[in-house]
Amino acid sequence: MAVNHYFQGGRGIGNDREKRLHEDIIIESLKIFGQDIYYLPRVLVNRDLVLGEDTSSRFDDSYLLEMYFETNEGFAGENEIINKFGLEIRDDTTLVLSKRRFEEHVASKTTLTAQGRPNEGDVVYVPLLKSFFEILFVEDQEPFYQLGNLPVYKLKVTRFEYANEQINTGNEVLDQAEDKYTLDQLQHRFTLEYGQEVLTGRGSIQLEDSFNYDTGKPAFLMNEDFSTTSTLQTQSPYASNLDLNAEAGYNTADVSDDILDFTERNPFGEIDE
């Protein structure tokens, strides 16, 4: 044999018991130095096979796991930047997750889009930061074959941009994000006493004349207190750049008090003479 069989078990350095011990030490380290983080698998409802996206995806479950921030000196990425569309927050970081723990507590209990591993597009919630992060990439070969084993995933994540996805995990802390930030008007429909919806059976009261001839869509009995404007005002003012627009003078029809002109006539924000 080319390698010393007293030190290698035929499948790389170390035997199965040494690899198990190595994984146990990693898991213990994550439990000591890591953070409690919720993993939310994304459920695809109506995937667009051309664009590869699903505008009506949802999150039905959450799983508590221990993960470690690899970038412990702060967020990577461009952080806060201001462009012609307003303020963007690009906080990126890397989370280290034990493969064995993921297989035991997530992969074996739910149906994932790509089975057996964390999926790009899934979301994690960090209670310490009270923020959601979306998984952009899953690195599964770093560190590279220590003891002939690949014991961890490294999740490359960035701040999650909420787009009215349904969050019904049963965890109040997670589910309240949908109640606070959703702009989906159908989330504010009235519900029958028995939880059934007339005609469609999903929990809302539908008008007797259920067709809106102006829009061509079903008409629902809505809560009169709901409005998109009031919902936006309950969010961070930076979510819709309300503070920035006011300071820049964009909240008025008069352009004389605007700091920069971002109209199509002047797309790069140069000040006209």
In short:
The chain is α+β, with helices and mostly antiparallel strands and 273 residues long. 19% of the residues lie in helices and 26% in strands.
| Helical run tally | 5
Largest sheet: 6 strands, antiparallel, barrel
Structural class by SSE content: alpha+beta
Structure summary, number of beta strands: 11
- β-strand amount: 25-35%
- Which segments are poorly predicted (pLDDT under 50) over 5 or more consecutive residues? 192-199
Order of helices and strands: HEEEEEHEEEEHEEHH
Mean pLDDT: 76
For the record, the count of structural domains works out to: 2
| Order of strands, widest sheet | 1-3-5-8-7-6
- Report the C-alpha radius of gyration, rounded: 25 Å
Q: Please tell me what the overall shape is.
A: elongated
